[in-house]
Write a structure and sequence with these properties.
2-enoyl-CoA Hydratase, Chain A, domain 1; globular; alpha+beta; 41% helix; seven-stranded mixed sheet; six-stranded antiparallel sheet; Pdz3 Domain; 540 residues
């Protein structure tokens, strides 16, 4: 009897304990987040133990993370360790390596350009050189990732590269000491007329403000009285750098109306911020035109939106991408990172320029930015957007502008339309391939002839009929069907692009931009609009 009672008590106590455990666990896991983490852990564990084949657990985890973030907004992403390393370098604006720009051509590493002042340039490596060995091992057939992993490395370390140079019989060995290489966010800063300066900015990293200060000081010393700031194809970057750039052209306003540049709103108040201009910059009265394109996003839109809202200058080109979300990065334990949207940003007038993304696949969302049908022409009163359902706001001068869809220019000027033939040539890299072959034969003679003088090259070098005939031969050799009407229509553009590509091999961006801008419709239109830019900014 005692034994039976004891056994019953034990069983009852066990049941109570199990129930109590259940209850305690439920209290602990009552947080929905805790429940979902446990669910994911259980699924991953069961899959790893019982799936019919061996599974790559880290790969499954990354896929799950990407799937999770896909349910948020298009700009919250997971960055694997290798990608995050590259992202950090892009934000810092520098990396450690040998200092070349390269491409893979027919399984061979082709030096496109040596970065000025870098270790490769100092050692005498030239554009059009082929790297055939790295540390005495064949480099033929390398992927881009393999090239970078072998040429990048800590400052002060050495790497041996073996070069095959056109018209030189023997291979050339170089032992290069790696160094810190700057990734310039300012592609070029140059005078395009006696009074008009031009600056092209490709991203907003930690060095952008410093580079802008240096670029504008240089142009001012060369007589700059007006400026075209090119933010086309600039995807953005660091918000604070965008604020600093806009601040260069805006004064601080008044005590009653301080000049706000951008502000953010978040679910968590600690992420709310506001950025105001300060008086005292040297360029607050400089006539200004900003060029934007469909690819201009984020920080580029902060700058162009602030200039437009304060009627400080003109925005010219095509409507920008429409990214008004602010991300913050958290590095994870394995060297990967989470980039998560934490806030929305607004232009001074109160515009959220973020496009609608709910209910759209990422690919569709991306594609929409490049499929707008815009009417070209003057758009100072923004009638181009007038029939839209987007919310309306007013600039400092009272002009209507619209939120919810990027920054629409004050003058809509579309990019040059090229024929299908020319687009095929560019897409397949045939123009660059022709220039590479041409420089293999003529590069040494050209270096001797022009002696490093871009001015001499620009004024005297002509793309001859014979050169065009050879170019057509390359197209036919690569099975490109030449539509004569299309070829004739774009012939002037093709000649300019050939000349600019040759120039880039010797002078980098300082050779490319001065030539290509001559056939850049958006830039040419901007040159003519300074009277309007000065009028709207009330500079006279």
């Amino acid at each position: 009897m005692k034994k039976r009672i004891s056994l019953s008590v034990v069983v009852a106590l066990m049941a109570v304990s199990l129930l109590a455990g259940f209850g305690i666990n439920h209290l602990i896991s009552g947080d929905p987040l805790y429940d979902q983490v446990n669910k994911f852990r259980d699924v991953l564990s069961l899959t790893e133990k019982y799936y019919i084949e061996e599974v790559d657990t880290p790969k499954l985890t990354e896929a799950a993370l990407n799937g999770l973030l896909d349910k948020l907004d298009p700009h919250s992403i997971y960055l694997p360790p290798s990608t995050f390393t590259q992202v950090k370098e892009d934000f810092r604006g520098k990396f450690e390596g040998i200092g070349i720009a390269f491409r893979i051509l027919n399984d061979t590493i082709l030096v496109m350009e040596t970065i000025g002042g870098g270790p490769s340039a100092r050692m005498g490596i030239l554009s059009n050189d082929r790297i055939v060995k790295i540390n005495d091992s064949s480099a033929i057939g390398y992927s881009n990732a393999e090239v970078m992993s072998r040429l990048k490395g800590p400052k002060g370390t050495k790497v041996k590269v073996t070069i095959k140079r056109p018209n030189v019989n023997e291979l050339l060995d170089f032992v290069i000491v790696r160094d810190e290489i700057l990734q310039n966010s300012v592609d070029v800063a140059m005078m395009v007329t006696e009074e008009i300066g031009y600056v092209s900015v490709n991203r907003f990293n930690e060095r952008t403000h410093l580079e802008m200060e240096q670029a504008l000081a240089k142009l001012k010393s060369e007589g700059m009285k007006r400026l075209i700031l090119d933010l086309r194809y600039n995807p953005g970057g660091i918000l604070e750098e965008a604020f600093k750039m806009a601040d260069m052209f805006l004064d601080g306003g008044t005590k009653e109306q301080p000049r706000k540049i951008v502000y953010t709103k978040a679910r968590r108040s600690e992420f709310d911020e506001a950025f105001f201009a300060r008086t005292g910059q040297a360029y607050e009265s400089l006539p200004l035109i900003i060029l934007i394109s469909n690819y201009s996003a984020s920080a580029s839109e902060i700058v162009s939106g602030a200039i437009q809202d304060w009627d400080r200058g003109l925005v010219v080109g095509e409507t920008s991408f429409g990214k008004g979300l602010v991300q913050r990065q958290w590095q994870l334990a394995d060297g990967s990172a989470l980039r998560l949207t934490i806030a929305k940003y607004y232009t001074p007038s109160g515009r959220l320029i973020q496009r609608e993304y709910a209910g759209r696949e990422k690919e569709e969302y991306q594609r929409e930015a490049f499929q707008r049908q815009e009417e070209e022409g003057e758009n100072l009163d923004h009638k181009v957007e007038g029939d839209s359902s987007r919310p309306a706001f007013r600039t400092h001068g009272g002009r209507i502008v619209y939120g919810g869809g990027g920054i629409t220019p004050d003058y809509v000027v579309k990019n040059q339309t090229l024929t299908n033939l020319t687009q095929t040539i560019l897409r397949r890299g045939l123009l660059e391939q022709f220039v590479i072959s041409y420089l293999d034969a003529e590069g040494a003679k050209m270096r001797a002839k022009f002696g490093g003088s871009f001015k001499l090259f620009r004024e005297t070098f002509v793309i001859s009929d014979a050169l065009i005939k050879d170019f057509r031969g390359l197209l036919q050799k690569n099975d490109v069907k030449i539509d004569e009407e299309e070829f004739k229509k774009d012939l002037d553009y093709i000649k300019v692009r050939l000349k600019a590509t040759i120039a880039r091999s010797f002078w980098g961006n300082n050779g490319w931009y001065p030539i290509m801008l001559t056939v850049d419709h958006q830039f040419q239109k901007a040159l003519s609009l300074f009277p309007e830019a000065e009028k709207i900014a009330k500079l006279h």
